[in-house]
Amino acid sequence: HPAFPDKSALEVVLTTLHAGGKFDNKSYKASGGLHGVGVSVVNALSEYFDVDVYRNGIHYHQRYEASVPAGDVEEIGPTTLRGTRQKFRPDFRFFEVSEFSYEVLAARFREMAFLNRGIRIKLSDERTGREDTFHYEGGVAEFVQYLNQGKEVIPARPILIERECDPESGGGSYWKVELALQYNDAYHENIFCFANTINTTSGGSHLEGFKSALTRVLNRYGKQNKLFKQEDFSLQGEDVREGLAAVISVKLSDPQFEAQTKVKLLNSDIRGVVDSALNDGLSMYLDENPSAAKAIVTKALNAALAREAARKAKNLARRKGILEGGSLPGKLADCSERDPDKSEIFLVEGDSAGGSAKQGRDRRFQAILPLKGKIINVEKARLDKVLSNEEIQTIITALGTGVGVEDFRIERLRYHKVILMTDADVDGAHIRTLLLTFIFRQFRPLIDAGHVYIAQPPLFLIKKGKKQRYIQTEDELNRELVGIGCEEAAFRFAPDESEETPSPLEGDTLRKLVDHILVIGKIARVLERKGIDFNEYLTLIAKGQVPIALFLRGHEKHWALNEGHAEELRRTLIGHAEEQAAGENGSAKPTSGADGEASWIEIEIPESKDLNIRLVDLIEWGFPLDRYRTQPYEHLHQPPIGFFVRGKEEFPIYSLEGLFNAIKEVSQKGMTVQRFKGLGEMNAEQLWETTMDPTQRTLLQVRIEDEAETEKVFSTLMGDQVEPRREFIQRHAMNVRVLDV
């Protein structure tokens, strides 16, 4: 590098700030990065950073440790590859969170694949075996189709508008605009806007240009074609955006953002560019497609009628004091604290639990609002109908923010913690989902500001002597019992004349063994729900084979031992080489044969990697895999594999599952385990200790990590369309953990 003659360009990029190639238009037409900081900061905050460069037929490599080169750039040898591979491990001295979130990465990569048509991004999680490939030839139009999955749409295919200005062709600075829009049968708008592939969540000039042009074009078309009954009538912006799904993607050579977080685009000239592009493109589309144009304008007219009905409902609500929060609802037990930052409100399922919560709370800063029954599903209702629901009215009044675009003011929020507290059963989950749907659609800024939480009441209370402890989950209960049972205990292998007897397992090794048994048991139940014979699976593992998928047809079965083998089986069994996805999360999916009839079922096994690691540990410790499962009357026809010894007690063990059961049995001597079915079963003191006391409770903060996927899930599960919901249930049926029948 000319400025650093003693360093390679690679080392300059990885160790020097502002060393990017984005400060002129020679290397990049458009880029999300602005300052040449990103990769050098990643290197600076990593334990190690390995980089491989494949260029001009040669493979180069360099390693950095604690951001310092561990050596010079090495020439490894010839290669046919092109590109760069980077591998790093974050230095967790600098980070509070030590786990990568698969969902956050998947959301970002999905966006990138939509916004860069044709690119292929593969994401693999070696912790779980989960894997996704993101590839969309349809670009932003396919993004809109993704947002509208499972909905009735107008028109049938998204409207796509593209414009580009390249200075090399005699224009000014470089820009490119891609717009895709399509209406659906929902009542809310869903607009995503990007600048240089960065999600500008607060909008900006490109969004302003889009909104103004959309309102103008539809008003002009409605008046020109006499679709409005009154000459002086005009649609408003919220009318033309009701039920709209749209993606705005602009790429420009010199983006100006509001801050380093890049949530808002400030380039004033891009507003006119987007306005002009949508004005010309949409006007042409409406003229060429009159039936779709009439349907779009009619939908906007219906939205205008509903807006007027909602206005009347709001006026009525104001007179009753609902929107202003002038008089608080009678069943609200308010707190004495008036500083919202120090106050919290619990939205509690049922009057019984509400009564216990009122008695157990700290009246200084905790308010309680009991809710009767299930609130209205706002996904299927317009605002005027939502405002007529009594429980919704009490929530709006209690929070004090108002509701709707014109009336909502987050600065009027009376409590900065809004906590949903429902039973840990299916009904409680349904009520919680209805409340989350309402908040997501009508109080979205509360989620964005981090004010919404979900309480985590315990499932169990364990007592032994004068000691007691609350347990959140069944997994936690099992681990607690294992911890107690393994104290001063050991597993002693039965003598084997043919080979040396392994040493006894005790302490941390014994606890690790039982943890393996717990996890293997959970995976076994998942596999069996999918239709996999776990004993047969164990037999294959014992032979050194690790199946990643199973193909079934009646009594016929074929195990796939790797991805190449799976692809070969798809080709030979199904009759074509197309990749047949086995559904999300490894669920089963019928695959079609050459004659088009459903014949084979492919069952993916993403759990195979984690399961194999644990089974290999069992083999190394000396356990035969054919003695994992407990068998009926096993003590009558086979010798024990060992003995569980604790104090003076000794229990013969015939299987690994039997070892776990013996440890649980020992740990529960003199102990009572109570399971809570609902909040109403707890008295006021228990509710305070477990769920409301800030020093002991567990709260889950509601955050949106993948906006597009969140929108899709709410629409699928809470919307009008039954078929997408049925498909979702069928696809995930094998992964159900709690079933309340």
Secondary structure layout:
Elements: H1 9-15, H2 38-44, E1 46-55, E2 58-65, E3 68-69, E4 74-78, E5 83-90, H3 102-115, E6 120-125, E7 130-135, H4 139-147, E8 153-165, E9 175-184, E10 190-195, E11 198-199, H5 205-224, H6 237-240, E12 244-252, H7 268-288, H8 290-319, E13 344-349, H9 351-360, E14 366-371, H10 383-387, H11 390-399, E15 417-421, H12 426-442, H13 444-448, E16 452-455, E17 460-464, E18 467-471, H14 474-485, E19 489-493, E20 505-506, H15 507-529, H16 534-542, E21 549-553, E22 556-560, H17 563-574, E23 588-592, E24 598-604, H18 608-621, H19 634-637, E25 642-646, E26 649-653, H20 656-667, E27 671-675, H21 684-692, E28 699-701, H22 707-718, H23 722-732
Parallel strand pairs: 10-12, 13-14, 13-15, 15-16
Antiparallel strand pairs: 1-2, 1-5, 2-3, 2-4, 6-7, 8-9, 9-12, 10-11, 16-28, 17-18, 17-27, 19-20, 19-25, 21-22, 21-24, 23-24, 25-26
Helix pairs in contact: 3-4, 5-7, 5-8, 7-8, 9-21, 14-15, 14-20, 15-18, 15-20
